[in-house]
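One-letter codes give the sequence; backbone shape is given numerically. An example follows:

. . .
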Amino acid sequence: MSNLLFDEPGPRARRRIRVATVVGAVAVLGLLVLAVRQFAANGQLDADRWQPYATWPMWRYLLDGLWSTVLAAVVSAALAMASGLALALGRLSRRRWVRLPAAAYVEVVRTVPALLLVYVVLFALPRYGLDLPLFWKLVVPLAISNAAAFAEIFRAGILSVERGQSEAGLAVGLTHGQTMRMIVLPQAARRVLPSIVSQSVGLLKDTSLGFVVSYAELLYSGKVLATYNGLLIQTYIIVALVYLVVNASLSKLARTLEARQPRAHRPRRRLARA
């Protein structure tokens, strides 16, 4: 089964895209130059304001925050993927009483901001006697929110497997569940692996919502550190660079995995006139 994600741009569309890219790059570069000049004019680029970040204690504190970020992201991703797979199978179920609730969950949760779910866990649940530990006040809403996204990823992967694969499994005497578990799901998982990594990048960035619940993730650690040393701009620039390195590495991994996918398993593009 092939999906048409978008039409391939024609010559005129490609020219417009190149022009827009150049204009955007020039605008961003101009803003960066302006920002650097303003920082320099206000003494924010002086060596003594950056020297503390050449010491190990500063980096150890930030790396502790990065570890907390990664831990929350990994646990959230594991729960979200397990729930997402169950929801995807539910949406594909032949039983209406299973399919409709799964579809309703996905459609509703995808429209709810993750921050709102954090507030529900933080303020609403304790009123009903459910006061989760600090770590889970961040992990649970992230898992709930991302489960819907992972469900759609898994569902697309399952639907991308050729119907003949399922028919072959049933023909040799496998049940529907055995066919799904032994034939369809392994192929679907390989095909959607790049999308899973990409979604995990977004989940990693969402852990910055930990500042709402005072969970000591990277951004919250940067806030505490900036309050302690008074180096607000320097601290947040360092934190932004750490996020950039981690997320760029994961994005590179996703592109590498996608490039290694067999061409026949990639979504086909359709030529269109521009």
In short: Residues 1-5, 267-274 have pLDDT under 50 and may be disordered. The first strand starts at residue 7 and ends at 8.
